[in-house]
Design brief:
Order of helices and strands: HEHHHEEHEHEEEHHHEHHEHHHHHH
Shape: elongated
Strand order of the largest sheet: 1-2-7-4
Distance between the termini: 54 Å
Length: 392
């Protein structure tokens, strides 16, 4: 959560002086403060840090609005909800002059394919990396406040376009997969900013490092990445597992064993691969058993996974994802799989029943579908599609 605006600014209710109007001693103070803020960030666990001006991201706003108008957001809200707000740091802090942008590494061991009956969690979601990021950014903010400036931390928040801020601050460049790639290390990072009224000297942006590489475009399971690096959220698995409603039928097999998130466009990226190799091939937080989702109560699911974005805060969407993953990776003869499928096929929620019908068909267990309540249109449609496929 972001802190409220500080009232201990250097000039009360007056805007801070322009940097070119500052006396030499104040310029020296600001130079020292900038270096101290960066040092504090690094010492507090940030892997990359830079400074950007806090002027509006007008070009980003135009692009967000264009994509929204063309439907590329796929119903996603976040910074699409109010582009005028998310692209203007002064909406966060009146008189904002600078952004101190930080990136924190999310370990990403090179894992084998997910095993039968298990489900994969994207690297950034296996641990609350944003909590660690916010703690480091708060340390930076405290240093700025101690010098008399206002500072507000923003991370994983629709108030600011965090990737655009990171690019402007020289933390990385826009990758073709639309992530920020930190030089030599790739995109396995969470990003956040400290918005401040201190007029700090900006960092130098980094050059594009993708060149002619298109491994992320070719490696995307659903072709969601365009040649211009624009993501079509309607095809992006990372969004589809978060979006409300049914997972589109044409993308369910591509979902594989994923429960939450998709790392494929990062997995195939060559930038930072040596670091990933050094992180090994094991991450005990990467996978969960299907039973951990399908056998759990609503409260248990929210207690365990509630820090994730879950549509409407409704655990039914985790069960929906789990049924698709189980259909893709489960063993048809496993008694536990059969038991969970039968329970899901009898669920009063048509969303759960319809995805269970698909999963049963995917597993080749048509025998489980006898007597399924098809009074809901989405369930009847799944049964009809399956009947057409089986009879063809």
């Amino acid at each position: 959560m972001s802190a409220g605006p500080s009232s201990d600014g250097p000039a009360g209710d007056l805007p801070p002086p322009r940097e070119d109007d500052l006396p030499l001693s104040r310029e020296e103070d600001l130079t020292a403060l900038r270096e101290q803020a960066l040092e504090v960030g690094t010492a507090s666990g940030l892997d990359a840090i830079g400074v950007a001006g806090a002027h509006p991201f007008d070009d980003v706003r135009t692009e967000i609005e264009r994509r929204r108008d063309e439907g590329l957001h796929g119903g996603m809200q976040f910074t699409f909800r109010n582009p005028a707000r998310s692209t203007d740091p002064s909406r966060i802090l009146a008189g904002a002059r600078s952004l101190v942008v930080g990136a924190r590494r999310t370990p990403a061991a090179r894992l084998a394919e997910v095993g039968a009956g298990r489900m994969r969690i994207a690297a950034y979601a296996r641990h609350d990396h944003y909590a660690d990021l916010r703690a480091a950014l708060q340390a930076v903010a405290e240093r700025l406040r101690s010098a008399g400036w206002s500072a507000i931390v923003v991370a994983d928040d629709n108030a600011l376009v965090d990737r655009a801020a990171a690019v402007r601050a020289g933390v990385g460049w826009w990758g073709r997969n639309a992530n920020v790639l930190v030089p030599g290390r790739g995109s396995w990072f969470v990003l956040g900013s400290v918005v401040t009224d201190a007029p700090l000297t900006p960092s130098t942006p980094v050059d594009d490092g993708c060149g002619t590489c298109r491994q992320c475009l070719d490696g995307c399971p659903t072709g969601a990445i365009g040649d211009n690096g624009v993501i079509d959220a309607r095809r992006c698995l990372a969004w589809l597992v978060q979006a409300p409603g049914a997972i589109p039928r044409e993308f369910r097999e591509a979902l594989g064993g994923r429960l939450y998130g998709c790392d494929e466009c990062q997995e195939v990226c060559p930038v930072g691969r040596p670091e990933r190799v050094a992180e090994g091939r094991v991450d005990h937080g990467a996978d969960v058993e299907a039973s951990a989702v399908l056998d759990a109560t609503d409260d248990e699911l929210l207690d365990r996974f509630g820090r994730w974005y879950i549509a409407d805060r409704d655990p039914r969407y985790l069960r929906r994802n789990a049924l698709v993953a189980l259909g893709n990776t489960g063993s048809p003869e496993d008694p536990g799989v059969e038991r969970r499928m039968r329970r899901a096929l009898a669920d009063p929620d048509p969303l759960i029943r319809s995805h269970a019908v698909w999963a049963a068909g995917r597993l080749g267990r048509i025998d489980l579908l006898a007597g399924v309540d098809d009074s809901a249109p989405e369930v009847a449609e799944e049964l009809a599609v399956l009947a057409g496929r089986v009879g063809s």
